[in-house]
Amino acid sequence: MELIRNYIDGQLCEPINGNYFECFEPATGESYALIPNSDKDDVQQAVIAAKEAFRFWSRTSTDYRHDLLRRMSELIEENLSALASAESKDTGKPISLASTVDIPRAASNFKFFANALTQFASESHEMPHANAINYTLRQPIGVVGCISPWNLPLYLFTWKIAPALAAGNCVIAKPSELTPMTAFLLSKICIEAGLPKGVLNIIHGYGQSSGEAIVSHPEIKAISFTGGTATGARIAAQAAPMFKKLSLELGGKNPNIIFADCRYDQMLQTTIRSSFANQGQICLCGSRILVEKSIYEKFKRDFLEKVQQLAVGDPNNPETQFGALVSKAHMEKVMRYIELAKEEGGEVLTGGNVIQMEGRCQGGWFVAPTVIEGLPADCRTNQEEIFGPVVTIMPFDGEDEALSYANSTGYGLSSTIWTENLSRAHHMAAQIQAGIVWINGWMVRDLRTPFGGIKHSGVGREGGWEALRFFTEPKNVCISYR
Ligand SMILES: NC(=O)C1=CN([C@@H]2O[C@H](COP(=O)(O)OP(=O)(O)OC[C@H]3O[C@@H](n4cnc5c(N)ncnc54)[C@H](O)[C@@H]3O)[C@@H](O)[C@H]2O)C=CC1
Ligand SMILES: O=C(O)/C=C/C=C(\O)C(=O)O
Fold first, then answer.
1. What's the pTM value of the predicted model, to 2 decimals?
2. Is there a catalytic annotation at residue 177?
3. Which atom of ligand 1 is nearest to the CA of 212?
């Protein structure tokens, strides 16, 4: 059994209470590591270390922080293979995905914010009529909390940590208790990179103990969270009376709107990915596929054929395209939604079942890629986030109907529109209720762009300047010069 440890004040350490719980490999259902069951005492120790480190870190030059963050990025690249294996084992995601998407993106996150910080500047506003000038300082906040989920573990952990550190903050970070391994390996990378002690502290444990201790700690002034909407609401309620800055990147029920005039083959290829990449466990996945009536039957036939060709298997196998779900509890949740869909009158066109694997993966948590039709837009299956390999397909007639279906949920994270009609694309993009719109693509990511959702999909934006602004406080200084 591997023993995961916290990383506090530059040291790998045991939880103060000495308690651990098990970490499972989703593809086999077997436990393989022990996770610290940290609590408020560990968080308190980390806050003391971070506050001390902040006195130094917040005053370092941009070059100094740039070089350290670049070094972190390089070390992630150098350890790509080990990190990808660890990520795949911990999450059940195909090794091909971990090595080409998750870990390279974690390296890019550090590289991107290392560079961005050297270009981050503040504004000045002149008042010649009053003989005055304003300049705005952008100062680091202090000690900040970063709490991340299990679906893209190192990718999302570093997406928060990198801008927080770049802006001059010290960080208390908590990965998901379901997928702690790459965050633990990152602790070792911090030590190798020579990150000064206390600048980044990584605490492992359950949300209800160590997570809540971070959110409720009075010295942690901002929280950046990615995860489920219910958890985001709880964090917001807890943080509000302390007036903490909050960035909440929450769930989605994203529409994938397909018009008859789309580039069909490209749409079909991408729709397979946007439906089932990472077993549908990405907040950006297009779980509601809306298809213009005139091509509905053709789309259904071609899509089902491709879904059935997906290579489901051991995540270790480089040929595998579709792996295991993250936990037994999550698999059961997804299966409950499939049952609900049937009760609501849906017809399962493919999948709908747990897959009993053989050999090494016989105890694993696999659910077949599932496509359901025949459901109205307002049923629970089409309104609630399933966060698994389940999509519904629905015909629509014209732009207005597509928009009314698309905007009918409480979520507003992302959307995809497939059309070659430029005017329609712009019209739909303007009307759609989502923070992110892709036209003729999906998950085409530029780290400079604002990333996040509206409605129940969250508050605030990550990425580029938005992230650096979130992790700094503006202070306006007005000078009267005569
Ligand atoms: N990126 C996304 O949009 C994600 C959405 N989800 C959705 O949320 C559902 C529930 O999944 P969970 O694993 O329970 O995710 P979660 O949202 O509860 O967990 C995300 C992170 O928050 C922490 N956390 C949990 N409760 C907390 C609290 N009270 N205070 C502070 N931190 C806390 C967890 O330990 C984890 O690090 C999923 O079925 C899925 O629908 C889950 C993960 C990611
Ligand atoms: O930043 C990205 O490219 C993707 C982010 C994905 C999530 O936040 C998620 O799935 O939760």
1. 0.98
2. no
3. 30
Are 409 and 467 within one domain?
Answer: no
Q: Is residue 249 annotated as part of the catalytic site, yes or no?
A: yes
| Shared domain check, 162 and 75 | yes
Q: Could you tell me which of 395, 393, 367 has the C-alpha nearest to residue 382?
A: 393
In this prediction the ipTM stands at 0.96
Give domain status of residue 329, yes or no.
Answer: yes
Total number of domains constituting the chain: 2
| CATH number of the domain within which 461 lies | 3.40.605.10
Q: What is the pLDDT of residues 60-100, one digit of tens each?
A: 999 999 999 999 999 999 999 999 999 999 999 999 999 99
Q: Ligand 2 pocket: which of 91, 147, 225, 282 to mutate (most atoms <8 Å of CB)?
A: 282
The rounded Å distance from CA 149 to ligand 1 centre is: 6
**C-alpha distance from residue 157 to each of 154, 179, 322, 386 (Å):** 5, 11, 23, 22
Q: Which domain holds residue 284?
A: 255-447
| Phi, psi of 280, deg, nearest 5 | 75, 10
Q: Which protein residues are within 6 Å of ligand 1, measured from CB?
A: 147-151, 174, 176-177, 206-208, 211-212, 215, 226-228, 231, 234-235, 250-251, 283, 330, 333, 385, 387
Q: Same structural domain for residues 221 and 78?
A: yes
